[in-house]
Specification:
64 residues
């Protein structure tokens, strides 16, 4: 089902400016932002911990 979000004026202005700068539509940017937010929300705690352990392995080893 389609929906029409009503944005506050300040947010609409920011979105319009970004769309103009990037040569993209406001709809395209909004869809991308919603998808990104959904992807972040779906991350499992284990995935986040594994990523942190991998990225900070050297620092974690120094704490042992």
């Amino acid at each position: 089902m389609a929906m029409t979000p009503r944005l506050p004026d300040d947010l609409d202005a920011k979105l319009s400016e970004r769309a103009r700068r990037e040569g993209r539509s406001k709809q395209e940017l909004a869809i991308e932002a919603i998808r990104d937010a959904q992807d972040r929300a779906e991350l499992e705690v284990g995935d986040v911990l594994a990523e942190l352990i991998d990225s900070d392995a050297e620092m974690l080893d120094s704490l042992k």
